[in-house]
Fold this sequence. Notes:
heterodimer; A: Peroxisomal Thiolase, Chain A, domain 1; 9-stranded mixed sheet; B: alpha/beta; Peroxisomal Thiolase, Chain A, domain 1
Amino acid sequence: MADAVGRQRREVAVLGGAEIVIVPEDSRSIPEMVLEAVEGALHDAAVQWVSVDAIVTASVDLFDGMTASSIAVTEVVGAVMKPETRIAADGLAAAIHAVHQIAARAYSTVLVVAHGKASMAPHWDLTEWAMDPVYLQPLGVDFLTIAGLQANLMAESNRVGRNAPLGDGACAVVLSGSVPSGAAVITGTGHDLDAHYPGDRDLSTWSGLQRAAGRAYKKAGVSDPATAFAVAEPSCMFPHEEDLFVEATAIEQTTPLSPSGGLMEGTAPIVSGLTRLLAAARAIQGHPGRRALAHGAWGPAGQGHAVAIVEAT
Amino acid sequence: MNPVAVVGTGQTNHAKARPDVSQPELIREAVDAALIDAELTSADIDAVVISNMELFEGRALPELWVAEGAYGAGKPVFKVATGGTSGTSSCIAGFHQAGSGSFDTVLVVGFEKHSEGHTQTGMALVDPFWDRAVASGALGNFALSISQYMAERGVTEEHAAQVAVKARRNAASNPHAHLKMPDLTVDDVLNSRMLAEPLHLLDMCPQSDGAAAIVVASGNNARKRGSKAAWVHAAATRHDQPYLGDLDRRLITTRALSSAAASAYAQAGIADPLRDFDVAEIYEPASYAELAWYEALGFCNDGEAGRLIGTGVTSMDGELPVNPSGGVLSTNPVGASGVIRVAEASAQLLDRAGDRQVAGAKTALSTGYGVYAWSDVIVLRSEMP
């Protein structure tokens, strides 16, 4: 059955994580940046490398200017002679895949790592190469122009200075099926890829996020999203996207969005969603029963969405 | 791992170029074939995993554009890309998704359309600080490691040519294969153009346009269906150090493959691979690589691979037919090649392999390989775990 959403077979704890300080241009190489995040995450999670069963990385080859760009980080994420899976999407999608691996009882403890280095090339120009090469790319359309179209539909405009500043970043999170007492656990996940052509989508909504959140709510047993969350951590690059986010997730207008700052403090492509998972887990940890919603997005105007529900135990 | 099974497979006809279809249309061919094979419709698919090496086509995030070819719009979709193992790693990702409880039915589809890009350029885009200056693509790397392998294990050009002949003759029975050469001889291989000593043209895999798909069912779903299924008994992945000076690129020490095999064999209870497997679909980018993999996969002792091919043990009527499909040597759309290995092994267990069927196959091996550093090993059986 399509959309037959089952129960995640195992609760998954967010043991810990780390992100490096995002700057407009990090003079270090990608492996050096990632190593700092990985070492920080293992320390924060109090997990030794030997206890990591598998690694899921997130990166995009053209953004890195490198074929099979996970090669750059194989050693620093500790994947030498271990199972590594590379997801080419937002880091939260990689975390969702790690949840699948743990729930499938393939691995118990999985390290999730995302990196992005926007300073290496004009990022929005690169995204033109992710648009359909037959009808859209020849028009010079990229993720920024589609986001602008969406903002106009919502009677807003994208202005420099109001958008989340893009920089260089890396984030690592340790997930485990062995749940320590008091841990923040992921109880539901959902992801979605919408149609590609702007004409095939209703750009006035984030219907893909609605579907992704719906899947996550069903798994986590969230019946009333309006009152379910103590905090939400959206991946919104542009101000108009916060309205789309609130509407699609059906959370209350008063739910705190990224109280610790969120993407507007600076973010990096591919890294955003994973940093939101970490922030969501940290926001509720120590407050049993509290829930938080983490969100990641990728593609033009939120073609791809990922949602994870985190609950404090 | 929780039980899951492959319940349907589909492939395009693979060719040097498929100018008749776009990338999404190419995918649609394989997906429709897999859905028909699984007796399902697109509405039954809960999630999709896509496999592709985007820089071979010079694209970014191609799944954003092509996923609709896999009926992916409005569904959970993402891409897995790990070089040569992209296809097998995508299948393993599909196994994990179907085993997680989140989805009943997961579609995995891999594709490559080499004719729309420049593969060597994609392969040369390696680490910019150390490796790019000496990037030689597949050929130069293989020529060096194979020369050493020949010296260390006594393998000859004739042994390798026998592998190349077996592959292309097997491919003649596979309607999907790119290179079908029913009359190819060892002399033809030895007389083909020298690419890089000791590699002749016919020792190497081609670049193909093509797509392949499998339908993965959760254990409960596969049991409820009650029909034949290729059950996953083991799936193991190993990645190794990527840098030229760190990675031991000798074919005799492909520790990623031998370690993945040891793990998978332990999971599946494989004690004697040559006896326990009825058929193998292994990722052999060059003729010599197949010989080295015989040793790494434990089909024979070290130094005996030449004897194995020479005595026909791995031919269609031998004890363990290896690559009845013709293998990567006959068909190589990179993002699909690993999916093809799993699709072919599954089709054997589903008894739907047509003229290349190994009679009564019950236990099958699939492997994935990427640039010395990546290996996947998958064990499938017709019996439920």
